[in-house]
Amino acid sequence: MIKDLHRYPEMANPQLRPRYSGVATFFRTPLVDSLEGVDIGVVGIPFDGGVTNRTGARHGPRAVREQSTLIRRYHQATGAAPFDLLRVADVGDAWLEQPCELSGALDEIQATLAKLHAAGVAPLSVGGDHSVTLPILRAIAKDRPVGLVHIDAHCDTGDDYLGSRFHHGAPFRRAVEEGLIDPKRTIQIGIRGSVNHPDMWRFSHDAGMRVVTMEEFSDQGWRWVAEEARRIAGDGPTYLSFDVDGLDPVYAPGTGTPEAGGITMVEAQRLIRALDGLDFVGADVVEVSPPFDTSGLTAQNAANILFEALCVLAPAVHRRKSSTA
Hints:
Elements: E1 40-45, H1 60-68, H2 82-85, E2 88-93, H3 102-118, E3 122-127, H4 133-140, E4 146-151, H5 171-177, E5 181-191, H6 202-207, E6 210-213, H7 214-220, H8 222-233, E7 237-243, H9 265-273, E8 279-286, H10 297-324
Parallel strand pairs: 1-2, 1-3, 3-8, 4-5, 4-7, 5-6, 7-8
Helix pairs in contact: 1-10, 3-4, 4-5, 8-9, 9-10
């Protein structure tokens, strides 16, 4: 910092300075090189090698970082104060040395996330395409499977596609096969859109996942869906994954596979808030594709979803740390 403070000493905290100033970091938190003392690490994963059609999500973390500078410190609706509760820091990007080699790229992501896990840092990740969730889970769930609250237009439990088993339409099938998530403690919310096969998501149903279609979501409402998610996830460790194409394209046009008739921003925000109390061990927001987001609306909404996720992740991390202190 080269500017001297004269009138407002509280502005030594970058989060209290004008939001248009400074170098953009996630939520205007410190950008750190060391994980020492960090409780929640917000990490960008600029990778879209798993995309099957419209690329561009590799640019998502940078766009969400910029929009997240608009987020203030306290949650007006819930009273959540994640930055007071724990040390939250921008830990940079899990950038890749070999992004064109798919399996190796996922290994690189896993290695970076494993460093956070080994340091006791809970990951709040920004993709990137949805294939990045698999290496995140490999890093944080290798010792025991976790439950999953998955908000998306697609189940992402496909199989081989165009020669790869590791694309953005298959991470949760691979995660079940590798013992990283418990399908009986998994709920997939907002599923909709056309498919190329009537049994496209058969794996989800056969494995025992709870699939909430958009029709059921619309009929029952977000409160009911939140209670269903709490019932399915239970008391065990749980991961939250939010694909922005779960939102209606009115709110998230900048994504690779938009599907009409989705969740509204208000529904998404209130749904996540209602999950407070679950034992979250990490979360991600994925599939923001800035080339299709000419207004910046998708990145802005993704940043707000990221804040909602932070506000339910932080209390869970705090409870665990308090119980082991």
